[in-house]
Design goal:
The chain is mainly alpha-helical. It has one domain. The protein is about 75% helix and about 0% strand. It contains seven helices and no strands. It starts with a helix and ends with a helix.
Length: about 100
Amino acid sequence: MDRFAKTGSIAGRDIYDIHWFLMNGFSYESAVIKERQKLSLEKFFSKLIDFIEKEIKQKYIDEDLNFLLPLDEFKRVRKILKAETLRLLKDELIRIK
């Protein structure tokens, strides 16, 4: 969301990073999110979910990750990345409520 707000551009790598972060169980600093976004965690995750649903298109994922991932990994993730990332974010939203 920050990149989009600052430059108007979106990178497929951003959603890949969110997915990787959540799948590997890394923690985040809620105080940093609150300070930088000026939102509660619940509102931040809701806003992030809405942003991904509306703004992240398959085109961005395909164009960006095609060059960053080995071909087998790219083929495996490209079709599930958005849906699985949204599921993980929605699970996190439920957990923090």
